[in-house]
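Agenda item 2: magnesium ion complex prediction
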Amino acid sequence: MGTNGSANGREKLKVLIRRGTIQKRVREVAREITRDFKGQRVHLVGVLKGACIFLSDLVREINLDSSIDFIAVSSYGKGRESSGQVRVLKDLDSNVAGLNVIVVEDILDTGLTLSYLLRILHQRKPKTLRVAALLDKPSRRVKDVKGDYIGFTIPNEFVVGYGLDFSERFRNLKDVCVLSLPPV
Ligand code: IMP
Ligand code: MG
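Presented output:
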């Protein structure tokens, strides 16, 4: 199954960002983080499940003392639209007080998830609190939040692959693809 493989022939996938381009950009972002936190430890907090593939690639390119943890939140339910309500489904295992925390997100869309996460993590007194996101869709923003390390800024399209899903599918695609569904 190539990038365009899909179970349902009426779903269309179109490559937006190729795997090689992603790989190169992930290395650049990792280099920026390495430079910004020279001589210090960073604690990456991946937002499950979408960020797991980005985080796995990113952390291996960071040349610093590093640790990782994960948090799971729900905001989208099963569809393509945000419900606007954020809940913690799985909290961190770690105490982040005094750590250089970098929240790792797959995509910044409305910003509802990130603004909620930043609020609860800030209360836990990290030394610094930064955000790395593979993708940014600024045109959709409802909350005034921004990432410190952004892979790619993309137009307002629904994308899947490299960790991003539609109803839990397509996370395994190596390229980031635009998904179009047949009209309902
Ligand atoms: P926000 O709270 O609206 O910023 O949404 C953030 C979350 O929504 C992301 O972590 C994704 O899980 C999901 N999301 C937003 N846009 C997309 C998309 O285009 N494809 C897949 N998931 C998306
Ligand atoms: Mg998702």
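Discussion summary: The beta strands are 12-17, 41-48, 65-74, 87-90, 100-108, 128-136, 149-153, 159-160, 176-180.
Owner for follow-up: CH.
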